[in-house]
Fold this protein.
Amino acid sequence: MNFEELIRLMPPFQAAMNALATVLLSVGYYFIRSGNRTMHRVCMSVTLAISSVFLVSYISYHAMVGYQPFAGEGLIRPVYFTLLGSHIVLAAVIVPLVLLTLWFAVRGNFDRHPRIARWALPAWLYVSVSGVVIYLLGFHLYPPQSL
């Protein structure tokens, strides 16, 4: 596999990581609501690992490719950039929220853990789902002129 092929595979790989994170977050939520702490811990740990792989891939991709202008025109532009802006802001916010939630869980502080998780989970889900939507808009519905 050459460098150009690797670059082309990174965005769909990242979207797949986001989609998988969405599923695992949802399943992890189901498990904790069902009282299964062990499976909740497994799901959330795997989700954290997947999201970390996504982040490294995303930063690497943009370090190599740089900015890819959005090719959509008309009304879709403000829709796309509103979605992208909210995605970016929440992506930055969830990092400390997730780490704090993890910290409380690891420390066994199950009074504080769910209080932070109530905010972290929906934000993380939004970022994961919106990441897939951004990928579909930016690479399939309105593909870039060059890659």
Notes: Residues 3-141 form a domain with the Four Helix Bundle (Hemerythrin (Met), subunit A) fold (CATH 1.20.120.80). The chain has one domain: 3-141. The chain has a mean pLDDT of 95.
